[in-house]
Amino acid sequence: MVMKYSYMYCLIFLALSLLTAFTPASSSNGLDGPFYDSTAYTECRAEAEKPLYNGGMLKDQKPSVSGRDSLTGIGARYTPTYILHNLTQNTIYCFSIWVKIEAGAASARVRARLRADNATLNCVGSVTAKHGCWSFLKGGFLLDSPCNQSILFFETSNDDSKIQLQVASASLQPFTQEQWRNIQDYFINTARKRAVTIHVSEENGESVEGAEVTVEQISKDFPIGSAISKTILGNIPYQEWFVKRFDATVFENELKWYATEPDQGKLNYTLADKMMNFVRANRIIARGHNIFWEDPKYNPNWVRNLSGEDLRSAVNRRIKSLMTRYRGEFVHWDVSNEMLHFDFYESRLGKNASYGFFAAAREIDSLATLFFNDFNVVETCSDEKSTVDEYIARVRELQRYDGIRMDGIGLEGHFTTPNVALMRAIIDKLATLQLPIWLTEIDISSSLDHRTQAIYLEQVLREGFSHPSVNGIMLWTALHPNGCYQMCLTDDKFRNLPAGDMVDQKLLEWKTREVKATTDDHGSFSFFGFLGEYRVGIVYQGKTVNSSFSLSQGPETKHVRLQI
Fold it and tell me: Which residues contact 480 (CB under 8 A, 6 or more apart)?
């Protein structure tokens, strides 16, 4: 498109449109309503904070403790309750509340549940509550059908009906699908994009009006990638399909201990080396997955038979061999995989064994970002081993351990039916750690048909891309002759499945398309671009100048000055 006048008018219009969209004034276009509140707390406090959204639907509503008859058969460990009326289908409800244990235990995991007309949602938010101070629970839900009356109640993990809970500052805020999408777009426009003004002048400083300027984005700041496996080696159609789309990857299995040392002392990095050659040749960034896996069944048989000093020696050799060989090659390492769910090494080498893994990895490759990676953190809050508070507590334990530093939060993201309100609330709480957050193994369950997988995948990708604290997304979609782990993007002929079409659409949508414009009477033009690297070309009166610039995050307009 050719433009004579500045893009800045468009930017101003866009800003005004966004402000209008999130103004709580009444409107008939579906854009009215409050802005999403990202506030989250992870420390137990002496006093509860004020409710988000001024309480929303629960404003001035006091909890009831007389709901026992309504909850017959659900369990004894609930109190208090909120009676909700006229919940609507496909509305996204954001829920938050402060919880304190009055009596019965020093601490307990508390889960908020919702009993509607036709179903019970097992978890719409969870928190580790403590005696004597207030803890913040944040979550949410979406209903498949309208509900005239429902009951929001709380259940503790302890099998003890003597626990007494106190709650305060409850909030339930509804968002329509359109409002939620507009909020996502706002975050995308503010966190993933930035205004740019390009100035063209002559050597004497005179502004050049009428110069033809072409701007092209050549790389993106936000990586979206996919896992690969050994099946990509020598498979030219697969390689071409992959490189056309992705600039980031992770090896699905080929770096795992059972792959590199299936028999004790017999190291084999052949496949991993060939895959690294593919990565280098195509200028792809790669995550290292993984150094250790706490799940015993995914360790070599010979390792499972070791104990004591023999196991410790094997572990030390593993770290040194793997990380010395690939030092500087992988941007990330998943150091101790799924340590919330399993404890193979810690049960044999001591509770703090994993901390030593981080220290050893840091010593060998000081520039790699070291991750703690686990599942069922953002997918659900029903898994008591991997609630958001359990994850945060483990990170803080590691950070307190002398001389240890963990750099990144890895959220696997193996979803069935996404709960976007819960997902965003959990990431809000994790963001308080001020560490990079990656969605590391995203897929949708194979129990769903291809079209439903694509719909749900789009929900997850939009949530991840629009959350300012998420730094990258990796899809767990390595292709094998018999399919993929749960979800494929393409068939064996490299014809896109619905999920593949959706990913292609997002990759195009979240990249600045080529911009062609003409400088105005000030010798400039402006545009709004996604963060990343850009190439710019100028043509004026037979002269040509080519240059490049980086667009990083910042609140101010990026100014690029070029001479011709």
Answer: 229, 231
Q: Which element (helix H / strand E) includes 363?
A: helix 353-364
Q: 173: closest CA among 128, 138, 136?
A: 138
Mind telling me the catalytic residues?
Answer: 338, 441
142 forms beta bridges with 92
Q: Which residue has the tokens 């938010």?
A: 125
Question: Which helix H or strand E contains 129, and what residues bound it?
Answer: strand 120-130
Helix (H, G, I), strand (E, B), or coil: what is residue 418? coil
What does the alpha-carbon distance between residue 491 and residue 481 come to, in Å, rounded to a whole number? 9
Place of tokens 């200028």: 283
- In angstroms, rounded to a whole number, what is the distance separating the alpha carbons of residues 111 and 381? 8
With beta carbons less than 8 A apart as the criterion, state whether 93 and 56 touch. no
The structure's pTM equals 0.92
Let me know how long the chain is: 564
- DSSP-based three-state secondary structure for 9: helix
Q: What is the DSSP letter of 493?
A: T
Residue 461: closest CA among 512, 494, 507, 421: 507
The tens digit of pLDDT for each residue in 346-394 reads 999 998 899 999 999 999 999 999 999 999 999 999 999 999 999 999 9
- Residue 20 has a pLDDT of 39
